[in-house]
Design brief:
This protein is an all-beta fold and 1103 residues long. Helix content is 2%, strand content 48%. The strands form 20 sheets. The chain has a 6-stranded mixed sheet with strand order 38-39-46-45-41-42, with no helix packed on it. Strands 55, 56, 58, 59, 60 and 61 form a 6-stranded antiparallel sheet that branches. Strand 85 and strand 86 form a beta hairpin.
């Protein structure tokens, strides 16, 4: 510690060096205006990570957040002695620095601390003691005269020049002032420790208590709370029925999740959850005309670094990640390398920043030698630094392999150590790679590589080599095998087991253990040489020396132990002792007894008005002891209180519960009892209710009849009651018989059922019974017997609307057509393609009672055609035809050639492709390319004609052309290249073009493609098209029955490069008529017309 401060007095005892500290700070008497430095040294020899140091004043004030001009913190590290040195320097000590200080050091699970005192004396003469100096802020430092309330009162005050003041009794002024004026008075007279001021003011006010009729206990003068925490303010009023109002800065507070107001007798409480800076205000509690006041101060802790930076020592190319943790999420941190700030906005920077909650990371993917240096990180309340040392990557052999000489069955281990722990390698024996096995193990832990050979054999002898991956380096050693023979005649004494049959043994070699108890069986063993002990359970050895079931072998004693016996431990155990002189064996049976399992399948079989019949199954396991009986309990559903039904053991598995309340749901559970104790309770039974059965089902009718089945329908009973309805039972019997047979084994919840496997031609009676927890209802009967015979129904195909027109799909797509039909008995469905039966290898067909499915997994062109579905029932039939067209991309056009070249233009012509892809060609795409670059550019798309003119060609270049054809599936796979090229000739500089007479392009409108008569189905949108040629661009007029079609939203008119289209959306019969298109320009007009017929849907004939 520097000597700018005086030595401590004689009454200060020196602090002993204990724990982590090598040197601790001492208490000092400092002179005002001088500097003082405190030094702490920490030994990190036994620490696994860098220690964390905190300087504190008083109990909680962290000086790390106050570091600056007045308080300076410094940290150094000596690599030779591994000692960290921490310094705190107080610049120009002021009286406010006096007080108790504490320094804390922590490293993972180790922690140490020490305290010291600072006393400040005046530089020249003693000043008169001022009571206000006791309330100056402790950490004000050199700015003591400039009061800063930003951390306490959230209001920054500007610096004012000191003015001569008259002597004023501040405490008398505070006692007579309103609490909202405390801040103003404290600021004026230099009081910064508001907490101490309020405590003293409170004590002074106690001397003259003020009587209040409304309040028995008023609010405290002030409250302090950390940001984000909860605060509770309470008062005690004289009238327990009085209503209070809470105000913040004069505004009434409304109850919410943040502000919770409670009243408990005479106590009124206001709770503020998750306090924020906005809650730093003056609060009032109002009862009638009486009020009490308080102030709440919200403290915002500075952002401190809770986990400091670590130093890194890496080689070139390794990844480095500096990491810190701060006290709160969302903190702003600044990273520096030496004196240069690292920016996140620099995209070319090799530094990457990561933020995850409180964690902040600086990442260097590949370290270089230029990264050597010190890295710093700053927050508004702390700082940290870490050193990065980068070295060249070299591999050194720290420990080589030594030659080994081992005996038979011993272990041989080769070990070497290299400088890089990430380096991997391979082991070789006589040039052959050694692979791991049950006897040979290869390990790599850190920088150490091991090859371990267990149970060495003569064949293991040889030269062993370790070769690191990626380095021209090898390490070799030799393994020598040594074989030794020793002949001796040992003393032999046959082994003997001395088994103690007393204690838990109930019969010979049988041991009974209560589940959960501990079994320890000590077996004395004799024999020479010492015999080998083997415990077996059902031919499986028990070898564990640790765990719940274990064996402990001592001299002349073997202990078999089971901790907390379980049912699975029951069985036959064998102890066998062997030595060269013989063998001895003993058999034991360990029986585990326990409380029985709980009973199963507890259920109610019937209920009465106030009774219920309960049955259950015995437990699967009786615990190894005979069952004595059962105990029963019941409770109301939703309640947690169980009522015992019997106190004496009940032996039967059926029980009638009595004295129950009608209409209340109950649950039952049963306990099993044996000689060991009572089992766990069974699962609760399904809730049941003592109530009468429902009335009979209503309106039972026959829905359908076949040769072997009958479909029934009915409605729910008119009276169900509180017991509800669980389901229905359907029964049948032949006419003239009285024995009813159930048609369903499980209850049916729906109100319909199909009775199957009935005899054909017989007359059957049917009835339905409703069942609830109370039992069966009266049956509902049919009025007359039903004859089991199929009802004839004509076949009828219900063809979906979208399949009545042409069905188009692309090659490779899946086709799945579902055609519903009806008819009884089940019709025979047959599919034909173009009049011939379908090929089942190409087309799949599946038929059911109500539909037929035609599916094709991947459509091909030859699947196109007309498919006919034929339904037959005896001599009746029905049919429907579906036209399927499979389309594909077209082939390329034919004979593309340049017909003429003039100026910067070239004319092309071609013929349509031979293969149109099974659908109409919708256009062509023309591309051009210079012969030199051979880069292709699209000239026209969707060109409908088989010729075009390419313009804007560059003079002096030679051009190639290619054309794609296009249909519904897209462009053709391959284009057709032009047979000849277009050369745009380039003449000399004196070239004079011949006179050119511009061609008169004006022409009167003339339709090149007329309108075509059409007939469409009602409701299906359609379109009519034509093409016109004219210049200037003509005006197009569409008419229906010589009447101009206006802006009717049902009609959409389009003009695409002279192709005129009129779209009619969902036409009706009123849209039939003659449609005409007229083109008009200044040179003339032309008109075409067609007839459009709207057909109504055919009406199906009912049989």
């Amino acid at each position: 510690m520097l000597s700018s401060a005086e030595a401590p007095g004689d009454d200060v005892e020196p602090t002993e060096l204990t724990g982590l500290f090598v040197e601790k700070p001492e208490s000092v008497v400092a002179i005002a205006g001088k500097d003082v430095t405190f030094v702490v040294k920490v030994d990190s020899t036994n620490l696994t990570r860098k220690p964390t140091m905190k300087w504190l004043k008083g109990k909680w004030m962290d000086l790390g957040s106050k570091a600056g001009k007045h308080i300076q913190l410094k940290e150094t590290y000596d690599r030779n002695t591994k000692i960290y040195t921490y310094e705190m320097k107080l610049v120009k000590v002021v009286p406010g620095d006096a007080g108790g200080y504490r320094c804390e050091v922590s490293a993972k699970d180790k922690c140490d601390s020490c305290t010291f005192e600072v006393t400040v004396e005046a530089a020249e003469q003693e000043q008169q003691a001022d009571i206000l100096s006791a309330f100056k802020r402790a950490d004000a430092g050199e700015d003591e005269g400039d009061l800063d309330f930003s951390a306490l009162l959230k209001a920054a005050k500007k610096k004012k020049k000191p003015e001569p003041e008259q002597e004023v009794d501040v405490w008398e002024l505070l006692k007579s002032a309103h609490p909202s004026e405390y801040e103003k008075i404290a600021f004026k007279y230099g009081i910064t420790d508001l907490r101490g001021m309020l405590k003293r003011l409170k004590k002074m006010k106690v001397v003259e208590p003020k009587f209040s009729e409304a309040f028995l206990r008023r609010l405290e003068s002030a409250y302090s709370v950390n940001k984000g925490k909860k605060i509770v303010m309470s008062v005690e009023v004289a009238d327990p029925n009085a209503e209070v109002k809470w105000l913040r800065n004069g505004q009434e507070i409304k109850p919410s999740a943040k502000y919770i107001m409670e009243a408990d007798g005479n106590i009124r409480t206001l709770t503020i959850n998750k306090c924020s800076l906005a809650d730093d205000a003056a609060y009032e509690c109002v009862v009638g005309t009486d009020k009490c006041f308080t102030e709440v101060f919200v403290k915002e802790p500075p952002i401190t670094i809770t986990k400091l930076l670590d130093d890194y020592h890496v080689v070139v190319g390794e990844r480095v990640e500096f990491e810190i943790e701060v006290s709160e999420e969302g903190a702003h941190v600044i990273w520096l390398f030496e004196d240069q700030q690292l920016s996140r906005e620099d995209k070319d920077s090799k530094y990457r920043f990561k933020k995850d909650g409180k964690r902040h990371c600086l990442i260097i993917q590949e370290a270089t030698l230029e990264d050597n240096g010190m890295f710093y990180v700053y927050t508004n309340g702390g700082q940290s630094k870490g050193e990065l040392i980068v070295e060249e990557k070299e591999l050194e052999v720290l420990q080589s392999i030594a030659d080994l000489t081992v005996k038979s069955a011993e272990q041989a281990m080769f070990k070497c150590e290299v400088s890089d722990e990430k380096v991997t390698g391979k082991w070789f024996k006589d040039g052959v790679e050694v692979l791991p096995s049950d006897r040979i193990k290869i390990s790599h832990i850190g920088r150490i590589h091991r090859l371990t050979i267990d149970d060495v054999k003569p064949g293991d002898a040889g030269d062993y080599t370790f070769v690191p991956d990626g380095y021209a380096l090898s390490i070799s050693a030799k393994l020598n095998f040594l074989e030794i023979k020793i002949d001796y005649v040992p003393r032999q004494d046959p082994p003997k087991i001395h088994l103690d049959v007393s204690g838990n043994m109930v019969s010979q070699n049988t041991i009974i253990v209560v589940a959960g108890n501990k079994l320890r069986l000590d077996v004395e063993i004799t024999g020479e040489p010492a015999p080998t002990v083997c415990w077996m359970r059902d031919d499986k050895p028990v070898t564990d020396s640790e765990g719940r079931v274990r064996v402990e072998n001592k001299k002349d004693l073997s202990c078999f132990i089971i901790e907390g016996a379980e049912r699975e431990d029951e069985g036959n155990y064998t102890i066998t002792v062997t030595n060269p002189a013989g063998e001895d064996k003993a058999n034991l049976f360990i029986k585990i007894v326990d409380v029985p399992d709980p009973p199963e399948n507890v259920k109610c079989t019937g209920v009465g008005e106030d009774t219920a019949n309960i049955v259950w199954d015995p437990p699967k396991f009786d615990g190894g002891a005979p069952l004595k009986g059962y105990l029963m309990e019941r409770k109301k559903k939703g309640s947690s209180r169980w009522t015992k039904l019997n106190f004496d053991v009940y032996e039967s598995t059926t029980y009638e519960a009595k004295r129950m309340i009608e209409g209340i749901l109950y649950e039952m559970r049963v306990f099993a009892v044996n000689g060991i104790g009572i089992s766990a309770p069974s699962l609760n039974s399904k809730p049941f209710m003592p109530i009468a059965p429902t009335s009979e089902p209503t309106k039972l009718t026959v829905d359908d009849v076949t040769d072997t089945t009958c479909s029934l329908k009915w409605l729910a009973p008119e009276k169900i009651g509180a017991g509800g309805l669980d389901g229905y039972i359907i029964e049948f019997c032949k006419e003239g018989e009285s024995e009813w047979h159930p048609a369903n084994t499980d209850l049916v919840e729906r109100q319909s059922f199909v009775v199957r496997n009935l005899p054909t031609g017989e007359k059957m009676n049917f009835r339905v019974v409703a069942v609830n927890i109370a039992g069966r209802s009266p049956p509902a009967l049919l009025g007359q017997p039903v004859t089991v015979r199929e009802i004839m129904e004509h076949p009828k195909i219900r063809l979906p609307r979208d399949l009545r027109t042409k069905y188009i799909r692309r090659v490779g797509e899946k086709i799945n057509l579902v055609i519903p039909f009806q008819g009884k008995p089940r019709p025979i469905a047959t599919w034909l393609k173009d009049g011939q039966p379908v090929d089942e290898k190409k087309v799949g067909v599946r038929n059911s009672n109500v539909d037929s499915i035609l599916f094709i997994r991947a459509a091909e062109r030859d699947h196109s055609g007309k498919y006919t579905l034929i339904l037959k029932i005896e001599n009746m039939e029905d049919s429907a035809t579906i036209e399927i067209r499979i389309v594909d991309k077209p082939g390329p056009p034919i004979g593309v050639h340049v017909t003429d070249v003039w100026g910067f233009n070239a004319a092309l012509e071609w013929k349509p492709p031979k293969d149109d892809g099974n659908c109409e060609i919708t256009g062509y795409t023309i591309q051009k390319a210079e012969k030199k670059t051979k880069e292709w550019f699209t000239v026209y798309e969707h060109n409908r004609r088989t010729n075009c003119t390419v313009s804007d060609l560059i003079i002096g270049n030679e051009y190639m052309f290619r054309v794609y054809s296009e249909n519904l599936c897209g462009l053709s796979e391959d284009p057709c290249m032009s047979k000849n090229n277009a050369i745009i000739s380039k003449s000399g500089l004196d070239y004079k073009p011949p006179p050119y007479k511009e061609k008169d392009m004006n022409c009167a409108p003339k339709f090149t493609a007329p309108l075509v008569d059409r007939a469409v189905t009602i409701g299906y949108s359609t379109a009519i098209s034509c093409a016109v040629r004219a210049f200037p661009k003509p005006k197009i007029i569409w008419m229906k029955n010589k009447m101009i079609i206006g802006d009717d939203p049902k009609f959409l008119m389009q003009n695409n490069q002279g192709v005129l289209t009129l779209n009619i959306r969902k036409p009706s019969t009123f849209d039939s008529g003659k449609y005409s298109c007229r083109a008009v320009n200044e040179l003339g007009e032309d008109e075409v017309e067609c007839k459009l017929e709207i057909k109504a849907l055919p009406i199906e004939k009912k049989d």
